[in-house]
Specification:
It contains 13 helices and 15 strands. The strands form two sheets. Strands 1, 2, 3, 4, 5, 8, 9, 10, 11, 12, 13, 14 and 15 form a 13-stranded mixed β-sheet that branches. The relative contact order is 0.16. The chain is α+β, with helices and mostly antiparallel strands. α4 links the parallel β4 and β5. The chain is globular, with a radius of gyration of 21 Å. It folds into two domains: 169 residues, Gcn5-related N-acetyltransferase (GNAT) (Aminopeptidase, 3-Layer(aba) Sandwich), CATH 3.40.630; 193 residues, Gcn5-related N-acetyltransferase (GNAT) (Aminopeptidase, 3-Layer(aba) Sandwich).
């Protein structure tokens, strides 16, 4: 059985793009936990004008055995990452493949060879295409479907990656929290003390002033996350692109801002778990039936994902985090009574200022994701 790795041009060749996008449907046949991605969203990532490519570039390949596509991979150079961290790191991403050592070896070796020729000294992944998007390999917690914008893969993925000499670069955790759990008294006390300060205010998103709200989130995001492992500052074009993609599913009451002396200090973003809507829609298309489920999403959704929660460094230790957790819970219970649980993800495993409060609140780490790394020297 001859295995062929062929480079594909996703930006200029429609057939190549369609072949690349379709591969997961070959891998996940019969997997009850898989949530089919929206094909239009995947294809959007491979448009020439996508803002990621202002600072990054990508090469892609498909593995074919006896005329059948059995895997895919991308090699990514993110100049924004390397400039920010003063590294020479390349990335692999968008990897999907059957459970075959030969296929995984061929795909990863192809990405490694390309990145090494470009002068990269290390390879990490999977990222699709950076830490600001989806990525990482699920290594623990295979017992259910993923939550919105979180990755999913069979158990043989980490085994095949590790067999190629990859080790852990960083693990991230997903926490689950019953929304009706009473927050600990210490959280309430901190939140109440913070709320009573005449210097500190909070409010939820004002959709009528969307552009202003996006301005504030962009300002806080690049400041609050700047010290995190693997962080890459988002360009304004990237941030606007992502905000536009999410606008349709955003619930105003689930995005909260805090201000100190009238200055933007922190925010929390909760999003309804749209993967619950699309779990049984395996077409990867909105039409003809997916759009109706989307419009009736509140009927299907019992989970929220807290995607982002951050406070600018100069405003930490003021209790803003406790205030946002408390108000987020109150808003979910008030405005969305069908919600039963919240996933908070992803959280770096060694981010103690985030992990400790979540554990104290009664949240449980129930899934673990891994970004792998390997030297190319």
């Amino acid at each position: 059985m001859a295995l062929v790795i062929r480079e594909v041009d996703l930006f200029n060749n429609k057939k190549d793009l369609n072949d690349f996008v379709e591969i997961p449907w070959k891998i996940y046949v019969g997997d009850p936990n898989w949530v089919a991605p929206l094909k239009m969203a995947v294809k959007d990532l491979f448009k020439k004008n996508h803002p990621f490519y202002q600072t990054g570039n990508i090469k892609t390949w498909i593995a074919t055995r006896d005329g059948e596509d059995v895997g895919r991979i991308a090699a990514i150079i993110n100049n924004a990452h390397n400039e920010y961290h003063n590294e020479k790191v390349g990335f692999f991403g968008f990897v999907e493949a059957i459970n075959s050592k030969e296929v995984w070896e061929a795909l990863l070796e192809t990405a490694e060879s390309y990145l090494k020729k470009q002068g990269m000294e290390e390879i990490r992944g999977p990222l699709n295409p950076s830490t600001n998007y989806e990525g990482a390999t699920l290594v623990d917690g295979f017992d259910g479907p993923p939550v919105l914008m979180m990755s999913y893969n069979p158990e043989f993925y980490p085994k095949n990656i590790e067999a190629m000499g990859y080790g852990k670069s960083k693990d991230m955790l997903a926490y689950i929290f019953n929304i009706r759990t009473t927050l600990p008294e210490v959280i309430h006390k901190i939140a109440e003390r913070t709320e009573s300060s005449n210097k500190i205010t909070y409010r939820h998103l004002d959709r009528k002033n969307w552009d202003r709200e996006v301005d504030l989130m962009f300002e806080i995001y690049n400041s609050a996350w700047e010290a995190n492992w693997g962080f890459v500052p988002m360009s304004r074009a990237e941030f606007d692109h992502m905000a536009k993609d999410l606008k349709m599913i955003v619930k105003d009451e689930l995005i909260l801002f805090t201000e100190v002396d009238g200055k933007a200090a922190g925010f929390i973003v909760g999003l309804p778990d749209m993967f619950q809507v699309f779990h049984k829609n395996r077409s990867g298309k909105l039409f003809p039936t997916g759009i109706f489920k989307l419009l009736m999403a509140d009927k299907y959704i019992s989970r929220v994902r807290v995607l982002l929660m951050g406070v600018r460094p100069e405003y930490r230790k003021l209790g803003l985090e406790a205030l946002m957790y408390k108000k987020e819970q109150e808003n979910i219970l008030k405005y969305y009574p069908k919600i039963e649980e919240v996933e908070m993800s992803w959280i770096l495993e060694d981010n103690l200022p985030m992990n400790k409060p979540l554990l104290r609140m009664g949240a449980s780490p129930y899934r673990r994701y891994r970004i792998y790394g390997k030297s190319l020297s």
